[in-house]
Design goal:
heterodimer; A: alpha/beta; Rossmann fold; four-stranded antiparallel beta sheet; 6 helices; globular; B: alpha+beta; Alpha-Beta Plaits
Chain lengths: ~220, ~290
């Protein structure tokens, strides 16, 4: 099977601290995999390296056919338009309503207004927030905000979906619903990589789990 | 980026940051108003001084006893000069009659004058566009070389002063325009920089979602254009108000003000000039920002 995400001997340092050390792994096209480990193990850094918010100090990274270690600044937006991201800190636009927050992913991709409306409402329906489309982020609960972020990440039907602690603020039932959404998206062919410290998310799933600890890859197994 | 969405983002930002934007618009308007007032002054002085050359003439005096043929040939050769508008011959008798007419009340000074001491002369008027110190001097020098021409007289000092006044005013005007235009660009530059930093989180999110530089920059360029154009429009209204409300009303009591003209052609492009300066400021700011 084709590799969608591939890390080869990747190291990332922050000043004197090593965030990731000699990491090698791959995620195949259409696969849904998990990265797990305690806080500070390097999960978020690893995701940032994938969407080029950080550059590696050593090694090579390939994402959706882009060699990100040597990528030109002008090519980064094109790579990011292949990726949907569920940020741990949400990154919602406070002065825009739920509809606009989801629509922005499509506006950036130049989707027409008409098509955008349909896709945004479909996406909000998927995360059961269709009725909140006019609400502003501040008026939503943490769980609802997280679901808006998920809707924004999936609305453009990206090649790769990255999720950083996507169920961190959710109750077990809503978390299960979000995981079902990810499985549905994955079933349509999207490659998904989820960073989480919640073992319940990948236990008994049969999916690939990459284990990190203090910046080292300590194991790779099936959940 | 679909252009209407860029306009929507710009409009939202203009409204959200209305006080910063209003302050910038007023600053730009003040700068453009100073430029307008200088242009208004230069234009009116220029118009007023353009009328003076129509009354300007050179006087050419012949040697005493010069033949009529020689005078005619000088008149012919002067008329051939493209800068010369009219040449009028004033005979020594005519000159004496004119002088006596002017000095009627002091007629005694002509008593005992057996012979007419005044020479035959020519009054030469030049075309308005050719009345410059250099052109007049050239004609005077050429005329002096003709045999039989005794003297050429013209208001050298007056012409030179007038010329220097016009050049000086234009130079001051140009320097003022350059300085204030740079100032306006700097105001737009600073405004866009402030607006950019205030939206830094939003821009960072756009970038992480895959926005291109054009997507991020376009709303700021639109904002710069709007701020500049609005400043230009306010300055246009300001200069028009100065003229129609203040100067025209004053001309009712001070008639001298009624000769002052309002060159609307010169001022109508002010919003456009403001818009151009606004875009220049915004583009400079966006070019220097690291994001």
């Amino acid at each position: 099977m084709d590799e969608m995400i591939s890390f080869q001997d990747v190291t990332k340092d922050y000043d004197t601290q090593t965030a990731l050390r000699n990491i090698t792994f791959s995620v195949d096209k259409g696969e849904m995999a998990f990265i797990t480990g305690p806080s500070g193990s390097g999960k978020t850094t690893l995701l940032k390296l994938i969407y080029c918010a950080e550059k590696p100090d050593k090694g090579t990274i390939s994402v959706a056919g882009f060699e990100t270690a040597a990528i030109k600044e002008s090519t980064v937006p094109a790579l990011r338009r292949h990726i949907g991201i569920v940020f741990q800190d949400f990154r919602l636009l406070e002065n825009k309503n739920v509809f606009e927050n989801v629509a922005i992913a499509l506006r950036i991709r130049g989707v027409s207004e008409r098509e955008m409306k349909t896709r945004v409402y479909d996406s909000l329906k998927t995360v059961t927030l269709r009725h909140k489309s006019d609400a502003y982020p501040k008026s939503l609960s943490g769980g609802e905000q997280q679901r808006v972020v998920i809707a924004r990440a999936i609305v453009a039907e990206p090649t790769v979906l990255l999720a950083d602690e996507p169920t961190g603020n959710l109750d077990p039932d809503t978390a299960a619903g979000v995981m079902r959404t990810f499985k549905d998206v994955n079933a349509k062919g999207t490659t998904i990589l989820i960073a989480t410290h919640n073992r319940d998310l990948f236990r008994h799933t049969g999916r690939k789990v990459i284990k990190l600890d203090s910046g080292n890859l300590v194991g790779e197994e099936l959940g | 980026m679909p252009v209407p969405y860029a306009f929507r983002l710009a409009a939202q930002s203009l409204f959200r940051e209305k006080w910063i934007n209003l302050l910038s618009i007023l600053t730009i308007a003040s700068g453009l108003l100073i430029i307008s007032i200088s242009l208004f002054t230069v234009y009116n002085i220029d118009t007023a001084t353009k009328k003076l050359p129509e009354k300007f003439s050179l006087m050419l005096y012949f040697d005493d006893g010069i033949e009529k043929d020689k005078i005619d040939s000088v008149i012919d050769s002067l008329k051939k000069d493209s800068a010369v508008s009219t040449v009028k011959f004033i005979s020594k008798d005519e000159a004496m009659r004119e002088m006596k007419g002017m000095l009627k009340s002091s007629g005694s000074i002509f008593e005992g004058l057996d012979e007419n001491p005044l020479p035959d002369s020519l009054e030469i008027r030049l075309k308005r566009e050719d009345v410059s110190p250099a052109a007049v001097k050239k004609i005077a020098d050429q005329a002096l070389k003709i045999r039989g021409v005794h003297e050429v007289e013209y208001g050298e000092k007056f012409l030179s002063t007038l010329h220097h006044l016009k050049v000086g005013l234009k130079t001051i005007g140009m320097i003022l325009i350059a300085l204030i235009s740079t100032g306006i660009i700097f105001v737009c530059y600073s405004t866009v920089k402030i607006l950019f930093y205030r939206r830094k989180d939003e821009i960072e999110t756009f970038k992480l979602l895959g926005a291109t530089k054009a997507f991020i920059r376009t709303p700021f360029l639109i904002e710069g254009a709007f701020i500049g154009a609005a400043g230009g429009l306010v300055s246009l209204l300001g200069i028009a108000a100065c003229y129609y409300v203040v100067l025209l009303k004053m001309s009712l009591t001070i008639p001298l003000f009624s000769v002052i003209l309002f060159p609307s052609d010169l001022f109508l492009p002010l919003p456009l000039i403001g818009m151009f300066l606004g875009i220049a400021g915004a583009a400079t700011a966006l070019g220097r920002l690291r994001y």
